[in-house]
Each structure stands twice: as structure tokens, then as C-alpha cells.
Design brief:
The chain is of the alpha/beta class. The chain folds into 2 domains: about 120 residues, no CATH class; about 90 residues, no CATH class. Helices cover about 45% and strands about 10% of the residues. Strands 1, 2, 3, 4, 5 and 6 form a 6-stranded mixed sheet that branches. Helix 8 crosses helix 10. It is globular and about 55 Å long. It starts with a helix and ends in a 5-residue tail after the last helix. The N terminus is likely disordered. This is DUF4856 domain-containing protein.
Length: about 290
């Protein structure tokens, strides 16, 4: 028995020594090159070179060809939305709009925080509704959402011929939606937090279709969070100039508690001081 114990002991000792040696060697390993997820660039047009430069600078893909899962995959489920492939002639104008309406407003450092893993240029983003009589199991709602923020993407839904014929008001809607979508992405990846002063003003106690205004909410939502409230104020502050915002949301009838006015003032200061946004220029911009 003594002999057998010795025979067993020696291999175990050698294995432990080998493992320790291997761990020591691992400390000198060189990191591999970053993993590429797409065949990129996707073509040889002038905008393809721009998208490649954009990726090299920010690590964010701009894709105009994408799979259903690139848009719909949501971690464990698939979104009840679909995105149509971009119209080739509208790809460059669509990205130009995104730059003018949103990206140009931020510093290089802030863009690093805001930009998602990928931006999808789509001819339309549409909601899906269940229909067992269809081969896909769904009907497609005709209206175009314009902008959608998913798991790791922001999709722009006007890479189509309609972009140039949108009204000034529709373009301002689209602009504010883009800003909100990028803020949504950054919050989802913990790139920043909703400011504590805003959270302190948030209170959903007693929220209802008749009481939401007195709580300082801009519209009725059955389930509110401080993050949702914050994103709604980001959209509204960048969509409406001060006079329009006041007409829509402020005053003794629309804001009986005065909490909306407090949130609005806080958001304007926050967006200006923390993100460097020229708010008055943005919500009065000609696009």
C-alpha cells in the first residue's frame, strides 16, 4: 500500500507544477486582435469609406445591410418590430441627416459615450401584430416609427425617398427622437446615470390618467420609472423651444404642482452643462 501511495502522489505533484508553470506563462500572452462581427465595409461607395473611418474612430458600425436578427434580437427574445433594408439612393442622405440633426452636437468625448455598437440605416421601422393567418405569423403596421433603440443598436428608419419630403415639424420630431435614442443606449450600457437631482424630483405615487400632470409627468404612462421620465424630458427639451414647451406643459392647469417646470429647468441646465448641447439652436434648427 505504501508503494501505491507513492506512485499516485508523484503524478499529482507533476500536474500541479505544470499548471503553475502554465499560469505563469499566461501572464506574458499578447491580446488578440479585436473580433470583427461583420463583413465591413459593405461596399465600395464613397459613404462606405466614411462609415469605415467612423468605425475606426468610434468603434460603432454604420450598416445599411443587416439581418433580421441584427435588428430584432433582444437578448432572449425577438422584438415585435421589423426594419426594412435601406434604399441605396437614400443611404448617404440618411447619414447626413443623422450627423446634422444629432452627431454634430456632441464633443468627441461625449460621442464615445453615446454611440451604440451599431447604427442601422433602414427604409422603415414598423411594429408587428400577431396574425396566425399570415405565413410569418404577423401583420406589419404601416406607420414608420422613424427611430428605434434596441439591444445594442439605434435604427434610423428614413433611409428612403421620403426623407427629403418630410415637413419641418416632422424633421424636428426625428431629430429629438435621435437624441433620445442615443441617450437610451448610453443609459442601457451604464455610460452615465440619470442625474440625482432629477431622480429626487421623481415620484410616481398615485400615478393615473387623471393625476399624472400633478406628478410632473409629460404624458400618461401606466408604469413610470425615473429613467423613462428623464428620457421623455430629454426629448421634449430638444424638440420644443421654450415658448412651445410652456404652451404644451406649463402653467397652473397643466402643471398644478410646478414639478414639471422644475424638471424642465433642471434638464435644460443638465443638457447644456454636462453634454454641451446648444438647446435653443437644436429645437429651432432648420433641417
Amino acid at each position: 500500500m505504501m508503494t501505491m501511495n507513492r506512485i499516485l502522489f508523484v503524478p499529482v505533484f507533476l500536474v500541479l507544477a505544470a499548471l503553475l508553470t502554465a499560469c505563469d506563462k499566461e501572464a506574458t500572452l499578447v491580446a488578440s486582435a479585436p473580433q470583427e462581427f461583420y463583413d465591413f465595409p459593405q461596399g465600395d461607395n464613397a459613404y462606405d469609406a466614411e462609415f469605415e473611418t467612423f468605425y475606426q474612430q468610434y468603434g460603432s458600425y454604420v450598416l445599411y445591410r443587416f439581418s433580421d436578427n441584427d435588428f430584432r434580437w433582444n437578448g432572449t427574445t425577438r422584438l415585435l418590430y421589423m426594419a426594412r433594408q435601406a434604399e441605396p439612393a437614400a443611404i448617404a442622405p440618411a447619414f447626413d441627416f443623422i450627423k446634422k440633426a444629432c452627431l454634430q452636437d456632441y464633443s468627441e468625448e461625449r460621442l464615445q459615450s453615446l454611440l451604440p455598437f451599431k447604427m442601422l440605416l433602414s427604409a422603415g421601422v414598423h411594429q408587428l401584430t400577431a396574425n396566425a393567418n399570415q405565413p410569418t405569423g404577423y401583420d406589419t403596421v404601416a406607420s414608420n416609427l422613424g427611430v428605434y433603440s434596441g439591444l445594442n443598436q439605434v435604427t434610423f428608419g428614413y433611409a428612403n425617398a421620403q426623407l427629403g419630403s418630410l415637413t419641418a415639424s416632422q424633421k424636428l420630431d426625428l431629430q429629438a427622437s435621435l437624441h433620445r435614442a442615443f441617450f437610451t443606449q448610453a443609459l442601457s450600457r451604464a455610460k452615465f446615470e440619470v442625474p440625482a437631482a432629477f431622480v429626487a424630483l421623481f415620484d410616481a405615487t398615485g400615478n393615473s390618467a387623471t393625476a399624472y400632470r400633478s406628478l410632473g409627468f409629460l404624458e400618461y404612462q401606466r408604469s413610470y420609472t425615473a429613467t423613462l421620465d428623464f428620457l421623455m424630458f430629454v426629448y421634449a427639451a430638444l424638440r420644443y423651444n421654450q415658448q412651445d414647451f410652456s404652451t404644451r406643459y406649463l402653467g397652473s392647469t397643466l402643471d398644478p404642482s410646478g414639478r414639471t417646470a422644475l424638471k424642465y429647468a433642471l434638464i435644460r441646465t443638465y443638457l447644456s452643462e454636462e453634454w454641451g448641447l446648444a438647446i435653443n439652436e437644436i429645437n429651432n434648427r432648420a433641417l
